[in-house]
Amino acid sequence: MRSRTLLAAVLPVLAGCALEHGNAPPERSAARSPHASRDSASRPLHAIFDRRQETLAPGVARVVVYVVLKGPERDGVRATMEATADETRRDTTVAAVRVLGYLPPTPGHGDRGGPGLVPFAYLEWIPAGGWDNVTERTARAAHHTDVVFMDDLSAHPGSGRRGGPQ
């Protein structure tokens, strides 16, 4: 539960940290997932712009994947984030995954130091005990997936905000 509270507080900051000066990620660092979902025009529904892996023990790692989403359609966002997590889990050392999804700035924003990417949703694939308690023992135990949209966060259990456990 503490990890959700921390994530809720840190997610907006992560957007600023991941993108210096509020600008979109540089083209050279933006990478398309080879398994990115595509629409009828064959454009990717997301672009991965950062991936961080933390090794907790030999053969046990947590991964955070940062993605820019094409649009705010919830079913598409959920499917895109789940596909990104599925691809990440193909690495057998991965014991927990977070996918942090951002929307691009609206036209005219994000230029010249204005607001950059907008935090929109996150996905967690974690064992019992949560993100902060991944161990060699819990790494191969049952996991669950949770997708949370930022506008639903105040009512989400464990968010540490109104509507959830404190």
Can you tell me about this structure?
By secondary structure, the protein is an alpha+beta fold. The protein has a single domain (2-155), classed as Diaminopimelate Epimerase, Chain A, domain 1, CATH 3.10.310. 22% of the residues lie in helices and 30% in strands. It has helices at 2-18, 74-89, 136-139, and strands spanning 46-57, 60-69, 94-103, 118-127, 143-149. It has a five-stranded mixed beta sheet with strand order 1-2-3-4-5. Helix 2 links the parallel strand 2 and strand 3. It starts with a helix and ends in a 17-residue tail after the last strand. Mean pLDDT is 73; it is low at 1-43 and 159-166.
Which key features would you list for this structure?
5 strands, five-stranded mixed sheet, about 170 residues, Diaminopimelate Epimerase, Chain A, domain 1, disordered C terminus, alpha+beta, disordered N terminus
Quick structural overview:
This protein is α+β, with helices and mostly antiparallel strands and 166 residues long. Helices cover 22% and strands 30% of the residues.
Order of helices and strands: HEEHEEHE
CATH topology: Diaminopimelate Epimerase, Chain A, domain 1
Q: Describe the biggest sheet?
A: 5 strands, mixed
Strand order of the largest sheet: 1-2-3-4-5
Which CATH architecture? Roll
Q: How many structural domains does the protein architecture include?
A: 1
Overall form: elongated
Distance between the termini: 8 Å
Residue share in helix: 10-25%
Rg from alpha-carbon coordinates: 16 Å
Number of helices: 3
Low-confidence stretches: 1-43, 159-166
Count of individual beta strands: 5
CATH class: Alpha Beta
Strand proportion, as a percent range, falls in: 25-35%
- Classification by helices and strands: alpha+beta
Instruction: Summarize model confidence as the mean pLDDT.
Output: 73
